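Me: I hope this is not a bother. Any chance you could explain this protein sequence and its structure tokens? It all follows right here:
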Amino acid sequence: MVVTLWCLSGFVMMYVQYPDLDEKERLAGLESLKFETCCRLPTDFGNIVLDRFRVEMFDSRPVLRLVDGAYQYVIDLLTGEYLASFYEAETQRSAAIAAKEFGLSGQPRLLGVIEQDQWTVYPAYSSHRPLYHFVMNDSPGTEFYVSSTTGEVVQLTTSRTRFWNWIGAVVHWLYPTMLRQHAGVWLQTVIWLTIASIFLTVIGIYIGLRQYKIRRNGRKSPYRGWSLWHHYAGLVFGLFTLTWLISGLFSVNPWGALEGRDYFEESQRLRGATLEFEDIQGFISSLPGNYISGSTVRLEGSLVDGQLNLVASDSEGIRVRLQGDSFIPAPLPEDFFTRAGHLIRPGTPVRNSNWITTGDAYYFNHHEARPFPVYRIEYDDGERIYLDSVSGEFAFAVDRERQWLRWIFHALHRGDFSRLIRKRPIWDFLMWPLMLGVTVGVLSGTWMGIRRVIRSAKDPKKFPFNSISELD
């Protein structure tokens, strides 16, 4: 039954993904930056170490977001006040602004304050809880969620995405809130259900092969009816079933398998220094005196190669690097990228480094958009690092474990074998016959199992079956 549900929900997931508000969508919900009455900073704020900082608008006033991993310190640049939490009145005003920027019709209505629901059950939302849940009275049935700790819109869904995900990702990933909210229990449930399914599939393939032989009556299978469908579907598509189960198991990195490393040391070397609160005070004070394009909705700063790196983004997701002292557009010099390989890993020879504008074996688009171009660095030990063309920061990185995961999961489970196969409709024409064949095999097996349970309930004496003929 579980494998049947995985197969049927897999068809949905080919076309509808689990809702996830990406950076480009977040930018679309932001106001244009205004600094007429800016900028004040707290005088008693500790000199904390940061990953990066962002300047955005919240409730029609500029705020500074100091990012430290998953945590944010938010400072109101009009008053210099540290905003530890966001309350209902200001969140409702901000939600109305975000709805307008998203292009939604009507006014958002607050449904309530929640810890989590089906669309915010990810652990990534933990630092934003509780969440303000808003609904729009519009035809798409839009709902969105605002963080009580940062004031940001962190999730957005529509009636269409919710409907298809109830029969798609929620089923496929075993994602009901009551289970997924307990991460450890959910993970072990997925792992052991998959292992049990693999075991039964292997046994089924073995029995199917043993039963396939020419008999006196000329038939190669002893089965009839649903059992015959199950037998032949298993012979033809049993290996694909097994492949999808094994690759699906590795998608959750059971017991840390193929998890890969975090590249923390390499990231620190690329930064070249430590970004502290004191380092950005002068920059914030200079904001009112510098020209910033009226379409800019975010300024994001970080350290790259020991220098302050500033990137301006507009509501369309277009990003431009600015000179930190003059705010003049200035892309990173080419020599930075040619030096980056040795800067990031000084003791490892660089095999090759170049710009790529389309996907390669490990960095590509499929169900999610990746930015291009990127600068690719390949090392002699096989590892690859991809640098963002605008900011120069890590866009992606793969070590040996992640390379194995790419082929075991993305290739075997999603059909991401090559650029040609990923193209649509080629990918659809490849996946549909395979998925239909596997679905026939598992669906017929499920129906046979249901019938067996029903028969045994009606007449316990006939369970277990005494002959193959009773399986038809």
Observations:
- The first strand starts at residue 49 and ends at 50.
- The first helix runs from residue 2 to 13.
